[in-house]
Amino acid sequence: xxxPDRGTRALHQALPPALRDAVDxxxxxxxxxxxxxxxxxxxxxxxxxxxxxxxVRMGCVDLAELDxxxxxxxxxxxxxxxxxxxxxxxxxxxARAFSAWAHRAGLLPSDVGAALASPRAHRELPSVLRADxxxxxxxxxxxxxxxxNPAHADPAHTxxxxxxxxxxxxxxxxxxxxxxxxxTTESEAVSLRDRVLLELLYATGVRISEACGLDVAxxxxxxxxxxxxxxxxxxxxxxxxxxxxxxLDDWLRRGRxxxxxxxxxxxxxxxxxxxxxxxxxARQVVGAYAEAVGLPRTSPHGLRHSAATHLLEGxxxxxxxxxxxxxxxxxxxxxxxxxxxxRLRAAYRQAHPRA
Length: 355
Fold this sequence. Notes:
single chain; mainly alpha; DNA polymerase, domain 1; hpI Integrase, Chain A; 2 domains; three-stranded antiparallel sheet; globular
């Protein structure tokens, strides 16, 4: 079993063989039959291993002995250790999914998880940037030198380094990003990459994993749309605007050729060493530029929230926003209507004399 953290792997190995096999078979079912992402499979497996470890501690040596009382006891223990309501809801969903699969596979005499209730997850309204804040963030790479990150400093290099470890030269001479004459330096190329990353995240509202998974062929320059492979292998086309198109043109013409290497393949966005841009690095880039321009702590998902909210505030149809974001359920998109209402209320309280 690969993917889960070291603690989960250790618990997995300590399970009785029959339970270990059930975990592995369920993971394969999620991946091959249900077409779940590696991240989703990892989360389900982590929850399941925790559940079965708890069941063994309660005296269950065979999967057929798993019953509703064990599931409830496991959730109660999670709650006493401080698990949030959202985490409890997700773990209950994992237990129900496993129980249903195990019953169909003949491993459980009944679907014991069907009667398992879970606390309603409290959905906090996502924080969003104002339109001017979002504009300042996406334009930051073309207006200033790349932000530095001491955690990624190279001891053999005296100058600052970028969030992804790219050297920018001595701090006093780091060139500003933007159009230049002559050859493109590595620092300028990464700045062009950062600009197109930020532009695409805000213009399209795609998830960071979807942005990093884009290939060059996924961009339709004539129609100004990108082909995105989302959760569950669902494919969708998402439009982008003129600023993103300009950033793409600059990146493909002057930036990507500078970073491309033997391991680049067809990846649209590249890391400093030429491989496909890693989502972790991309998150660091977003956070570093947000800090550099004085914004609150911002993540790629914050840009996704902002894009959805600004679309709805501009009059976009809720169903259209659902399609753009790749939500399987309209309920996932409706939270952004609440964000817009809250912002309207705040403006009303601030401006109306009888608020």
